[in-house]
Write a structure and sequence with these properties.
The complex is a heterodimer of chains A (170) and B (112). Helix content of chain A is 78%, strand content 0%. With 170 residues, chain A is an all-alpha fold. In chain B, α1 runs parallel beside α4. The chains are: A mainly alpha (170), B mainly alpha (112). At the A-B interface, α2, α4, α5 and α6 of A face α1, α3, α4 and α5 of B.
Amino acid sequence: MELSSHEFWALVHGAILGGAFLLAFSGGFAGLYSLRPEWASREGLHERVRRLIIGTTTMAALVWFTVISGTWIVYPWYREETPDSPKSFLLANPDTKDWHEFAMEWKEHIAWIAPMLATAAAFIVLYYRDDLIKNQTARKIAMACFIGAFVIAVIAGLLGALITKKAPVS
Amino acid sequence: MEARANELRPSGPVAAVLLASGIGAVVLGGLTIAAEASESFANSLAYDLEVGPLSGKTIWATAAFLVSWAALTAVFRKRDVNLGTVGIVTAVLVGLALVATFAPFFQLFAPD
C-alpha cells in the first residue's frame, strides 16, 4: 500500500492537480458567466469579483503546475529508453503503439496551450476587477479563454488517464 | 453600463496578453512541426536529454508568450484597442496552434 516516487508524482500531476483544476474551473466559470449588470447587485459585485479572481488565478496557477510537473517530472520516466518504460511498452506492440504515436504525441503538445489561455483569462479579471461587469466584450473574451483552457486541459487529461491505464508510470 | 465602457482602464494591456497567448501557442505549433520535419532540429531543442525536444519547444513557447506579453504591454499600455478584433486575431492564432499540435497533422511533415 505504498506509492513509489514515480507513482506519487503521476498522482500529483494527474489526479490532485487535475481535481483541483476542475473545482477552480467550476467556480471561475460560474462567476464569469453570471457577471452581467442585470444579474448582479452593487453590494454583491465586489464579493463576486473577489471569488472570480481567486477562481481564475488558481486555475491559471494549477494549469502551469500541471504542465510543468507533467513535462519535467513525469514525462522523462514515461520516455526512458528502457524496455519496461511506458513508451517502450506501448511501441513494442502494434495494437498499442497508437497510444504513444497519437495520444501521447498530441497530449504532450496541446497541453501547453492551456496555461497561456488561462493566464490571459486571469489577467483580464485581475486587470478590470469590479469594472469587468462594465466591459462585456472583455468578459466574453475572458470566458472564451477560460473555456478554451479548460477544454484543452480536459483533452490532455483524458488522454493522459487512458495512456496511464494502458501503461502506467511506475 | 456598457455605455460607460469608455471610462474603463485602457484595453491595451488586455490586448497584449491575448495576442501574447496566441503568439506563444503559434510558436509551440511551429516548433512542433519543424521538429517533426527535421531530426537534427529536434535534437537541437533537446536542452534536457531526459525530456527531449519537448523541453526546447515548451521553453521557447513560454518565452515567446512572456516576452511578447511584455513587449506588447509596453506598446499598448496606454492605448485603447478594439478587443473584438484582438479576440478574433487571438482565436485564429490559437486555432492554427491547435491544428499544428494535432499529432496526425504534424506527423505529415515527418521525413519519409
